[in-house]
Amino acid sequence: MLNSINPATGETIATHEELTAAEIEAKLARAAETFDAWRTTPVAGRAALLERIAEAFEAGKDRLARMASEEMGKTFKSAIAEVEKCAAGFRHYAQEGPAMLAVRRFDLGGGKAAEGHWLPLGPVLAVMPWNFPYWQVVRFAAPTILAGNVGLLKHASSVQGCAALIEEMIVAAGAPAGLFQNLAITSSKVEALIDDPRIAAVTLTGSEGAGMAVAEAAGRNLKKVVLELGGSDPFIVMPSADLDLAARTAVAARIQNTGQSCICAKRMIVHADIYDAFMERFAAGMKAVKAGDPFAEDSDMGPLSSEAQRRTVLDQLDMAKAKGARLLFGGEALPGKGAYMSAGVLVDVPLDDAFAHEEIFGPVAMVFKVADLDAAIACANDVPFGLGSSIWTTDRAEQDRFVRDIEAGMVAVNQMLASAPPAPFGGVKRSGHGRELSAHGLHEFMNLKTVML
Fold first, then answer.
1. 163 and 243 part of one domain
2. Is position 424 within any domain?
């Protein structure tokens, strides 16, 4: 049984029966059968379906957003924004995707040439997390459908209502049966799915542990895998930065989705010359953050996704304090119902302690003071992760150094990092490998077949 529990109240709002072995087999068989037909569907027909799915998401956005707020606690206004972004993602691949699949020509010399044809691989299994229950799925689903592949979704157990709605929207848009199917199963069933020869490739967004398990199973089966794992993104502020804008953005970047985003700014790395001035602004902003009812217009953030997730963050803070770090304020469980906690700031984290490498998946920022640009880069890179980063400087030479030397898949210059359908998304080091979104995300699960002419 898979339970949906409202983290704002602690109440169980729905239960979902886990699929039986026979039901899983039926869905796999249907996926394989549908792929045989869908792979030969003209690209224009696939793109037209994506356009209709975008329209379905727009028409159902209030219903979709309400489900996300109730199942994982994000504010209703941010859930609406997420659904609108999903519609934009489907529409991006509908409009721009066909050109990404154009035949490539290669001059071989001597009057000879070759062509590169983009062809689908087969059913793609996606293992997805709860924090962006729609957008994370659309990042795989939109390019999968356009590519001529079919999708099987193993979503987080806690957001099965969202998972079912995604399938409902795609089916309502006129997708053939079996093009996109939700698998209501626990993680224990994933390995057997990867072992199944009908699954052509796997994509996962989640924790390091989950990524290692999926990568091991995919490697054993010699199947392509894309991994988007954790992040402990640096937010670096240098003396030439606009401190007011940097501080406001730092608050937004830390508390987005109640701090439960892989690309949240988690470590504020601030030059000593402007540390005090930045901290005055940043602390004031963090203290003003209001945690409250996800459906209240004045709530800046809702509860954490579950009581277990809140307990994890509180335990991390206890560990940090035991190592000598200081919690300036906040980072406390709020009284009453729900997995609420206050936004907080943690300082004096020992750089030589393993805790400085941890990802806090909640609304608490770690702040580090550094002496110069080299120290900022060293601090930014001194973690096992390399997903995103944000740098704040108007000095072009400093910008060039950061872009070149920060070990991350993405760098935002004087702005908050965010994903966007036209731009590649992904990381390095223990943040995973492969890319989502853009043409790169579309091509990840395709065969570039060379044709000698």
1. no
2. no
Q: Is 38 left (phi over 0), alpha (psi -120 to 50) or beta?
A: alpha
Per the annotation, the verdict on 11 as an active-site residue is: no
Q: Could you confirm whether 228 is annotated as catalytic?
A: yes
Contacts of 205 (CB under 8 A, 6+ apart): 127, 128, 129, 136, 139, 227, 228, 229, 262
> Rounded distance, CA 123 to CA 150, Å?
5
Strands 428-429 and 112-120: unpaired
Largest CA distance in the chain: 77
CB atoms closer than 10 angstroms to residue 298? 8
Domain residue limits at 338: 233-413
* pLDDT tens digits, 302-345: 999 999 999 999 999 999 999 999 999 999 999 999 999 999 99
Asked if residues 304 and 318 have their Cβ atoms less than 8 Å apart, the reply is: no
Q: One of 262, 264, 436, 444 is an active-site residue; which one?
A: 262
Residue 419 lies in a domain: no
Q: CATH number of the domain at 292, please.
A: 3.40.309.10
Catalytic residue, chosen from 70, 71, 82, 228, is 228
